[in-house]
Design brief:
Number of helices of chain B: 11
Order of helices and strands of chain B: HHHEHEEEHEEHEHEHHHH
Helix content of chain B: 40-55%
Strand order of the largest sheet of chain B: 4-2-5-1-6-7-8
CATH topology of the largest domain in chain B: Rossmann fold
Number of domains of chain B: 3
Largest sheet of chain A: 5 strands, parallel
Mean pLDDT of chain B: 87
Number of strands of chain A: 5
Strand content of chain A: 15-25%
CATH class of the largest domain in chain B: Alpha Beta
Shape of chain A: globular
CATH superfamily of chain A: Cobalamin-binding domain
Oligomer: heterodimer
Number of strands of chain B: 8
Shape of chain B: globular
Radius of gyration of chain B: 22 Å
CATH architecture of chain A: 3-Layer(aba) Sandwich
Order of helices and strands of chain A: HEHEHEHEHEH
Structural class of chain A: alpha/beta
Low-confidence stretches of chain A: 1-7
Strand order of the largest sheet of chain A: 2-1-3-4-5
Distance between the termini of chain B: 32 Å
Structural class of chain B: alpha/beta
Largest sheet of chain B: 7 strands, parallel
CATH superfamily of the largest domain in chain B: P-loop containing nucleotide triphosphate hydrolases
Chain lengths: 140, 316
Amino acid sequence: MEVELMAEEKRIRVLVAKPGLDGHDRGAKVIVRALRDAGMEVIYTGLRQTPEQIINAVVQEDVNALLLSILSGAHNYIFPRIMEGLKEKGVTDILVLGGGVIPNEDIPGLKAIGIAEIFGPGTTTQAIIEYIQGNLSKRV
Amino acid sequence: MELVEQALKGSSRAIAKLITLVENRGEGADEVMGEIYPHTGRAYIIGVTGPPGSGKSTLVDKITLKLIQQDFTAGIIAIDPSSPFTGGAVLGDRLRMKNVDTQEKVFIRSLSTRGSIGGLSRATCNTARILDACGKDFIVIETVGVGQDEVEIVSIADTSIVVLMPGTGDEIQTIKAGVMEIGDIFVVNKSDREGADRTAQMVRMMLDLKQSQNNWVPPVVKTVATEDAGTVDLIEKLHSHREYLSQSGKFLERRKERVKTEIRKMVEEKIRAQVKSLINDYRSFNAMVEEVVSRKKDPYACARELTKSLLKKQLL
């Protein structure tokens, strides 16, 4: 009855969020499934999330990592708002990652506000999984 | 404990962290639950179950919205199955609760079954208790809904709502008896679809045949959750059932039954865990296994022998 062994083990909890007005989420869904296959618990909240919805979910779900996926180009506007909101709620110890269509020249600015890493198109799901697993254990 | 104090005062962050601590069976989880327990008992627990795709999450969203409009506060526990191979899970119920996911009065937590066969885990019960202790008037638990496993929800909920959809007309015959037993209220959601009336009829027929031993005949409510149709009726039936339970004395009776089952289960779990490790450490266990495989002994006699030995030594 090996199922018993998996019961109630600690799991990495991740929120995959699509802020703003993106029209499709195929990429995000690929990541969601890959993370699940790597044994993580993935909360996926769908398209068109407001910063408020995302921040609320981060707090209530007590996630270890937040993955923001954005394709619309609004990252320089939305990401800082989310980071501010998280700080206001006292959430300063989670891993925040960004993905989607984010030009290289914007990356330093995003890292400066607390986004740990940006994963552009072409990143393998394996790379993201390893990054999360590797960097979370450092924080514990 | 500091975290418990903050949670009791209503801090969402503290509540969330408490739930995680208890879910992960962290250091001091049992003591934390012991601290929490005296503050519980006020919340009314609603279980929502049913086959995948029946629209449970959307319905929970609409029901909860109505409840907070009636000035109540609510906690929602949304449960999704974990993969038996990887242990991971996609928790996607929250996605459908857009009316209440930023409401001050509502706390939503997504849980994975984490391998638990019955569809509910110890974590579910503990999470419900934490939300209860932290002041929520209603707690809505949405479960996986995969056939017979739904029966577990009765062990926690005061009112169990079974959500079906049209197209389960003929298949209703094959719905496991257990599901028909546990529903206090039945909902035919997506009832704008063809076959809704037929499905509702079949459910009513099955409930008649069942001959309930008490005075509550589960009503069948038709809804279209996405359009918020039928939900007023559903809420009314919910309040009616609550009334019925309190007036008939069944409310207390059920809660007592639940406590009995819970304590028994926890004792069984503790004993089972001990037995497992004791047997593995048992000196002659491997020799015993060899003898059984080579037919020198039978497994039944061995089991009796082992049990007697463990009990006699009062190792348990």
